[in-house]
Design goal:
heterodimer, A: 211 residues, alpha/beta, 5-stranded mixed beta sheet, 7 helices, 9 strands, 36% helix, elongated, B: 280 residues, alpha+beta, 3-stranded antiparallel beta sheet, globular
Chain lengths: 211, 280
């Protein structure tokens, strides 16, 4: 009798102590920490932009996570489809680089345009934009994301942007070369005719990542 | 006889265990709320209008700011310690270089050691924008926008709008001209403003969520035309208010920052929407 009693007593006390603890680390219900991503995908390096979480959509409407860009060198810029000034120039600069790529790189490099204007640039708008500029879906990825994730990526790239009252965005015209792990190799503001350093950086990015 | 004693003991035991569970549960629930943010209260800012320093000509220059809640004082070392205790990836030795430069929390003794106890209630500094954003999210809050912060900070001690108060302006500029102390005074030690918020001027600079909306080029420091090659938006923008030199200083500071920068005079405080909402 007493032994049964002490077992019951012990169990109830243990249960009471156990249900007090709260081990949840609150970073937000839907948010993965970089630690989670690292565990899942083994993001290799501390400087990789692909440590940023977030759910993006591409011009096909497919879900994309930045970490999906791993494995290929990337030329990335942030633009928006209603841009009348410098964005068309940036896209033309990137297309020219696409043409100038040496054969061994041509298959590899991915060109990524991230919209600063996710409210208007949904997959349909991105798809129309890609069509208008002749951007081959095999190589070009256009992304729409949550405004907060756009802000994060811009901060990681060093892009500054501001929505003006007329709906236009003022923003730095920056292209970035990322290596296969998503680390920034090179950044260039307003590349214009200059493509030598970008091509050199893409070449480095195309080399197999060392351990 | 035995079954009566047993029944009595079971009743006592389960009651005691239940009471213990309730006490543990309640204190842990409250504990995690408090642990998340120490005992920071928030004050309600009733909103207002903010005139950005640089605006496109012809555009609406004043932005409406909705009412919101703001931390009464900047986040302290003790509060930030609790954050990194619960989130190891934000500890000094483990943080991703992407998210913070090498001076992150370099005023602390170690990953989980602020140093002397006297530092506990000082504003945390040497924190990057990414780490401040992560803290805010962990605390169930967010960072204020530039407009929100400026509206809150434009209040004088007794008046909602201190922007016409020359004395107040002079005081702010005097604070700005003083060198950064090695050890900051504790939070709450400067002044309380109209809304009940402390230290919006005079203690540390503070991160805002949209710090990277502040655009400055080499050209625009000298003249008002932003180089069209560099920026998309409407060509020429001009500074709207030449009187508020302190605002210039803050604008210049923000435009020089990157997300991973840590600065010994830069901390932050959190904000929250006034209406309940779910934020991305």
């Amino acid at each position: 009798m007493t032994r049964l009693l002490s077992i019951i007593l012990a169990l109830t006390i243990v249960a009471a102590l156990g249900c007090g603890t709260d081990a949840r680390v609150g970073t937000g219900a839907n948010e993965e920490t970089s630690r989670d991503i690292q565990a899942r995908f083994d993001v290799p390096s501390g400087n990789s932009l692909y440590a940023l979480s977030g759910d993006w959509a591409d011009q096909e409407g497919d879900g994309v996570r930045l970490v999906d860009l791993q494995g290929r060198p990337v030329l990335m810029a942030m633009v928006y489809t209603n841009c009348h000034y410098a964005c068309p120039i940036i896209v033309h600069d990137m297309k020219r680089i696409e043409r100038e790529l040496p054969k061994d790189l041509a298959e590899d490099v991915r060109f990524v345009l991230v919209s600063l204007d996710p409210e208007r640039d949904d997959p349909d708008a991105l798809s129309r934009f890609a069509g208008a500029y002749g951007l081959d879906g095999e190589r070009w990825t256009l992304l729409q994301g949550e405004p907060g994730d756009v802000r994060m990526l811009a901060a990681a790239l060093g892009v500054k942007y501001k929505k003006e009252a007329d709906g236009q965005y003022s923003h730095t015209n920056l292209v970035a070369v990322l290596d296969q792990e998503g680390e920034i190799l090179h950044r260039e503001i307003d590349p214009g005719g200059e493509s030598t350093s970008i091509l050199a950086a893409l070449q480095r990015g195309g080399e197999t990542a060392s351990l | 006889m035995h079954s009566t004693i047993l029944r009595t003991w079971i009743i006592i035991a389960t009651t005691a265990a239940a009471a213990l569970g309730v006490v543990r549960g309640v204190s842990t629930w409250k504990g995690s709320e408090n642990e998340r943010q120490g005992s920071t209260e928030m004050v309600r800012i009733d909103g207002g209008t903010y005139t950005p320093l640089y605006a496109s000509p012809g555009a609406e220059t004043a932005e409406d700011v909705e009412p919101f809640y703001l931390d009464r004082h900047p986040v302290t070392n003790a509060q930030f310690l609790e954050f990194v205790r619960q989130n190891p990836e934000w500890r000094r030795s483990q943080v991703r270089p992407l998210f913070a430069d090498q001076d992150y929390l370099n005023h602390w003794a170690d990953d989980l050691d602020i140093g002397p106890d006297s530092l506990a209630d000082r504003p945390v500094v040497n924190v990057s924008w990414f780490s401040a954003m992560a803290y805010a999210k962990w605390a169930g809050k967010r960072l204020p926008t530039t407009a929100e912060w400026e509206v809150a900070a434009s209040a004088g001690t007794d008046v909602r709008d201190g922007s016409k108060d020359e004395d107040f302006r002079r005081k702010i500029l005097k604070w700005y001209s003083e060198p950064t102390p090695d050890i900051h005074p504790p939070v709450g030690s400067t002044y309380e403003n109209y809304w009940g918020a402390y230290d919006l001027h005079g203690l540390v600079w503070e991160w805002v969520v949209d710090f990277n909306t502040a655009l400055v080029t080499g050209e625009s420091r000298n003249n008002e035309d932003l180089d069209r090659k560099l920026f998309c938006g409407s060509g020429s923008v001009g500074a709207s208010n030449f009187d508020d030199y302190a605002a210039f200083i803050r604008f210049a500071l923000r435009s020089g920052l990157e997300g991973d920068y840590t600065v010994p005079s830069l901390g932050f405080r959190c904000a929250r929407d006034a209406a309940p909402s779910y934020e991305s």
